[in-house]
Amino acid sequence: MTRSLELVVKLATPKSPKMNTLNNGAFSNDFLERNEILSELDLSNTKYRLGMLVIKAKYFDNVPNNIVELLEHINKKCLSLGDAASKVASIIVINMLTSTPIPSQYKKIESLYKKFGPKAEFTLKKQVEIKNKLDELYEDSYQREQLKSNLKYEKLKLDQLAREKAKSTTLCPKCQGASCDLCTSGHIRITMDDALQLFRMFKIPLCVDSFSITYWEPILSIFRELRCMEKEAVHQMGLKHKKINNTKANYFLLDS
Ligand SMILES: [Zn+2]
User: Fold this and answer.
1) Residues 190-223 pLDDT 10s
2) Chain centroid to CA 164
3) CA of 166 to the centre of ligand 1 (A)
4) Ligand 1 centre and the CA of 116: distance in Å?
5) What is the spatial distance between Cα 173 and Cα 149, in angstroms, rounded to a whole number?
6) Which DSSP string corresponds to 166-222?
């Protein structure tokens, strides 16, 4: 995330209460208020509107309307695919843009989190320890039931955590975003097969052989177009940020 984008996200997201602009007495005219900076950097009313909308849908998680608005826009672009198919295609595009998993990816991500997730190593080690203890015990030992229930608990705990993760993030559990052999730039990407499975989940009639040309290519093309707009908006935001810094206006980030 660029510095200016980070600033905009912090300014727009109330969960950063410590973020503030300096505004005291004689110098107050030299500083821009929080809202002034935000409105300077927010490109919603410019030709970068769509790119800004992607940024908002991606990072302003406190405003669900952004997702709805972006979804409507994408849906219009997908309409040539047919009514039902365009809805599914729109879901795929928006999830690609916001790095959110689609339901047909849940199982795959869940199993990856069970194997490689940050808690997996610890929990799996614990499970092995319990199993080893169980092996050492006599068949009729009173401790067996206790250990068995501990083992069950450890398994459940990991399952539950992996399931929750799988529904909320495509962040690679192995490298945590740093990029590795499991992922693409730190994320478990939506593949054509994932997309195909989602179309099946929604019972959209389709021909598997022509899925790539009929649906996957248009999905990728709309995704790339919007991703490009997002990048342009981020770039423009950076230029504006620089301009603010070069004028008399300035601000302080009380961000601990
Ligand atoms: Zn990775």
Assistant:
1) 999 999 999 999 999 999 999 999 999 999 999 9
2) 14
3) 14
4) 10
5) 27
6) HHH--B-TTTTTS--TTSBTTB-PPPHHHHHHHHHHTT----GGGHIIIIIHHHHHH
- If you measure from the C-alpha of residue 235 to the centroid of ligand 1, how many angstroms do you get, rounded to a whole number? 27
Nearest partner of 66 among 41, 39, 83, 42, judged by Cα: 42
Grouping H, G, I as helix, E, B as strand and the rest as coil, residue 60 is coil
What is the mean pLDDT of the segment spanning 231-253? Answer: 77
Ligand 1 center to 120 CA (angstroms): 15
| CA 204–ligand 1 middle distance (angstroms) | 32
Domain extents for the chain? 1-102+191-256, 103-189
Give the largest CA-CA distance in the chain. 82
The answer to whether 173 and 117 are in contact (CB under 8 A) is: yes
User: 69-85 in b/e burial notation, b at 16+ Cβ within 10 A?
Assistant: ebbebbbebbeebeeeb
Distance 225 CA to ligand 1 centre (A): 25
- Over residues 118-158, the pLDDT tens digits come to 888 888 899 999 999 988 888 777 888 889 999 999 999 99
